[in-house]
Amino acid sequence: MKNQSIGEEANPKRVALVTGSTSGIGMAIAKRLADEGFTVAFHSRSSTTAGEALADAYPGATYTQADLSDQAQASRLISEVVKHHQRLDVLVNNAGINAVIPHDSLKAATTEVWRDLYEVNVIAPWTLISEAEAALQQSSSPDLPSCILNISSHAGVRPKGASIPYAASKAAINQVTRLLALSLAPDIRVNAIAPGLVDTPMTESWEDARRLWQERSPMGRAARPEEIAELAATLISSTYLTGEIVLADGGLNLT
Ligand code: NAD
């Protein structure tokens, strides 16, 4: 039995780490999982005051600061969370960065931009997953497999997005999702959500995108972070779905 070494409780609370969970989509997912009974490990790059306040607001929750552009800090994040909570059931790779560059401005998409986006959007999730694999295996059971959820983007599915390097980084994490769903099954399920425009601090000033969603998308608006969190909760509560990239763009792709 994999759970024997975990602790003395017969049904210990499941633990979910949500990266980038002091704002936007990550905060909505973390709060939703806490409301559903998970013990949540909050994380962010720098907003420690907000993170500590969130951790104080939920029983058993913790907050850890780590800059995920530094892979040593990414590894430390997993070891600190697992050391404190003594288990990990769900890893949500939500933290991400963007760069807004017109697609025909090739010189503006410098090698530095490419490296920065890949470091946070692709390599950090990989580091976190590889460091968390043992703990996720340990807490998994045939009735309740562990779970990884990656937050990618509709830009990783369609030829769209704030810049080509951003879109390529999100396409990469989508492919990582599918490949890992194959190699980590059946103990660990791996899925992704590919949101369209969501109202968060990242997109506050994106007036053109907001107008596009209002005028062209069947739902006539951007998503609220809580709507992405609801989908995240559904994918996390599944005991069967794996390898799915769920597009959540209010139907924009249909137009
Ligand atoms: P946000 O700016 O509110 O949140 C981003 C989070 O990522 C923050 O908590 C921040 O601390 C964290 N982060 C960024 N760089 C980091 C680093 N170097 N180390 C550690 N943490 C770091 O943005 P959001 O819109 O909530 O974005 C969340 C995810 O959703 C991102 O991966 C983003 O690409 C994706 N996404 C957002 C939209 C949208 O329209 N908002 C659409 C598609 C995909």
What does this structure look like?
This protein is an alpha/beta fold and 255 residues long. It has one domain: NAD(P)-binding Rossmann-like Domain (Rossmann fold, 3-Layer(aba) Sandwich). Helices cover 43% and strands 14% of the residues. It has helices at 24-35, 48-57, 71-85, 111-139, 164-184, 207-216, 225-237; strands spanning 15-18, 39-44, 62-65, 90-93, 146-151, 188-195, 245-248. Strands 3-2-1-4-5-6-7 form a 7-stranded parallel β-sheet, sandwiched between helices. Strand 4, helix 4 and strand 5 (146-151) form a beta-alpha-beta unit. Helix 1 packs across helix 7 and helix 3 runs parallel beside helix 4. The chain is globular. Residues 1-8 have low confidence and may be disordered.
Summarize the model shown:
This protein is an alpha/beta fold and 255 residues long.
Shape: globular
The CATH first-level class comes to: Alpha Beta
Question: What's the pLDDT, averaged over the residues?
Answer: 95
What portion of residues belong to β-strands?
Answer: 5-15%
Q: Major sheet, described briefly? A: 7 strands, parallel
So, the CATH homologous superfamily? Answer: NAD(P)-binding Rossmann-like Domain
Q: Class by helix and strand content?
A: alpha/beta
Order of helices and strands: EHEHEHEHEHEHHE
Radius of gyration: 18 Å
Can you count the helices? 7
In spatial order, strands of the major sheet run 3-2-1-4-5-6-7
**Which consecutive residue ranges, at least 5 long each, have pLDDT under 50?**
1-8
Ions, cofactors, ligands: which are bound? nicotinamide-adenine-dinucleotide
How many distinct domains? 1
Strand segment tally:
7
CATH fold description: Rossmann fold
Helix content: 40-55%
| Separation, N- and C-terminal Cα atoms | 50 Å
